[in-house]
Amino acid sequence: GAVVSQHPSRVICKSGTSVKIECRSLDFQATTMFWYRQFPKQSLMLMATSNEGSKATYEQGVEKDKFLINHASLTLSTLTVTSAHPEDSSFYICSARDQRGWRQGDHEQYFGPGTRLTVT
Amino acid sequence: DQQVKQNSPSLSVQEGRISILNCDYTNSMFDYFLWYKKYPAEGPTFLISISSIKDKNEDGRFTVFLNKSAKHLSLHIVPSQPGDSAVYFCAATFYNQGGKLIFGQGTELSVKP
């Protein structure tokens, strides 16, 4: 159980275009999902918290108009990188928290496999 | 401001021996800590966690120790196996802030046969 998928796993796009990344919890409901970004040899940096049915909460320094997040259902959150530039090239990872587990005091988050974005 | 720090970027251990990965934090309000294992181009996999009200949690070959006074936690892997070779991240969170995880920089563990 507790499987999180991401699609696509790898995408190459041209500068100025937009890219959408999907994050799905496959066997549990997630009222909250998180989006992270990882640069090579560095830590995972939280970009935003995605809440089902409400606006995402962005971390300081993350442009909400550039990284659009939609959490339309209890199993799907999407991250859209708008007008992508080469500096947006990175590894994007989502995670989801099991709604039932959280109420039981389980703090685990389950991570997707990540999406490698390359902007040329 | 790096609230969670893993000061050793890499660690090399012989198969069968103990691996000890360390993590320090600065915020005494953290109330839950987690360890994740990560392979290149993959998402992190949860390993083990510990609440701030405990000082030890054990799961098979993995044991996490928490020293709140020193704001330090460590992950012990005994015995180490070549398949344990990966990057290990420690993370901390606040229960009442929606579960945001704050990660350390990671330590790359290499277990040699």
Structure commentary:
The complex is a heterodimer of chains A (120) and B (113). With 120 residues, chain A is mainly beta. Helix content of chain A is 4%, strand content 50%. Chain A contains 1 helix and 11 strands; from the N terminus they run βββββββββαββ. The radius of gyration of chain A is 14 Å and the shape is globular. Chain B is an all-beta fold and 113 residues long. Chain B has no helices and 11 strands. In chain B, β4 (32-38) and β5 (45-51) form a beta hairpin. Chains A and B meet through β5, β9 and β10 of A and β4, β5 and β10 of B.
Task: Write out key terms for the chains shown.
heterodimer, A: seven-stranded mixed sheet, four-stranded antiparallel sheet, 4% helix, B: 113 residues, mainly beta, five-stranded antiparallel sheet
In short, what is this structure?
The complex is a heterodimer of chains A (120) and B (113). By secondary structure, chain A is mainly beta.
List the helices and strands and how they pair.
The complex is a heterodimer of chains A (120) and B (113).
Chain A: E1 4-7, E2 10-13, E3 19-25, E4 32-38, E5 44-51, E6 57-58, E7 67-73, E8 76-81, E9 90-97, H1 99-103, E10 110-111, E11 115-119
Parallel strand pairs in A: 2-11
Antiparallel strand pairs in A: 1-3, 3-8, 4-5, 4-9, 5-6, 7-8, 9-10, 9-11
Chain B: E1 4-5, E2 10-14, E3 19-25, E4 32-38, E5 45-51, E6 56-59, E7 62-67, E8 72-77, E9 86-93, E10 102-103, E11 107-112
Parallel strand pairs in B: 2-11
Antiparallel strand pairs in B: 1-3, 3-8, 4-5, 4-9, 6-7, 7-8, 9-10, 9-11
